Each structure stands twice: as C-alpha cells, then as structure tokens.
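Please study the protein below:
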Amino acid sequence: MGSCEYTIDGGEPLKGGGGISNVMSIHWMAANQPGRSIAGPLLINCGPAGKQLNLSADDTSIAMAPKKYEIGTGKAFSVMGPGLAAAKGEIDISAWDKAHVTGTFTIEGDGKKVAGKFDIKCPQPGNGICE
C-alpha cells in the first residue's frame, strides 16, 4: 500500500505504511462511497502510529495533479503534529493519479526541521476509481 516517512532534524526516519487509515482523498472516492461527505482533496497521515504527522489539504480546489503547495496557517495545506502548530513549509506532489500519490515535504516550526517523503497507493482498489 506504500509508505510515508519523515525525519526531525536529520534524525532516524519515522516510517509508516499506506492504506485506508493513512491516506484519504475525495478524488479517489466514488460518488456514493461511504465517508465521501467528510473527505477533502488529500489527507496524509505520515509516520508510525503514535508519532504521525497529519498533512491536510485545506484548499478544496486542489486537483489530482502534480504541484507544489505551501504548508501553514491559511495556506493550501496544514500540518498537525507535536510542536508543529505554527509550522510552515512546502509539499511537492510529484505524481498524483488514480493509482498513487508521491512526493516530498519540508516543514519548520518550534525550532525543528522536518523532511519527509511519501509514495502511497490509492487505498480502495475496485471502487471504480482506484487503479
């Protein structure tokens, strides 16, 4: 199902898997699929359980396509995680289609530098959208 990992200040990678509890996108959901009413353009839960960062697209116009976006309060994406409430950064989505989403991100906040990468498969093959 893929993975997402990040480091803090160049430390050991904190890696988590893909799957339905680690990625959600309205672009990957059928019109009648349960949960669609609460889905947004993209949500990635990155890292192992208990140490996850949540990267969430706040701009509802985000399309399923490669593009760079700013992370931070009032920006296209927000991040939630320990000590990152006022963090700023960038997410670079290098590929996003009906099969997967791939990219990198950098975040700075609370004196920490976070760098990560992800390659997560569409979690619901067979729903008529995911390949």
